[in-house]
Amino acid sequence: MPRRTLSRASDKLEIIARIERIQVSSARRWGRMNSHQMLCHLADSFRVTIGEKPVTPVGGKPQKLMKWLALNLPFPWPKGVETRPEVDQELGGTPPAEFDADREELLRLVDRFTRVPRDFEWHPHPMFGMMADEEWMRWGYLHTDHHLRQFGA
Description:
Number of helices: 5
Order of helices and strands: HHHHH
CATH class: Mainly Alpha
Distance between the termini: 20 Å
Number of domains: 1
Radius of gyration: 14 Å
């Protein structure tokens, strides 16, 4: 099976359909976010990549080995990895407002993130540093998939 990525139309459509299935009542399987906070977390994460939301980097040099493992190993991402405060909805992340509007905003950001040509410059990932286009598309799929699985979607 080919690696899933937001640069492949079928993978992007699958992610969009899964986002659309999320409801305010969707129960989490792990973690502390509710489904509405999760949508806002994903939106904030995309905002970071396109330069709309600043985020503090994880201390030290970009973690190249961790990036390679995260983007290439054929295993689901681990549960419970701590997020940056700027994309944590209980700290500095965008607070949930109206569920349907927040979901539409996430879908708008997914579209912008994947649009070619881009109308933005990539900003460094807080842990992985600068990434190539295809690495971003892989990260976008995996990060979104991770949180959608968190809510059974």
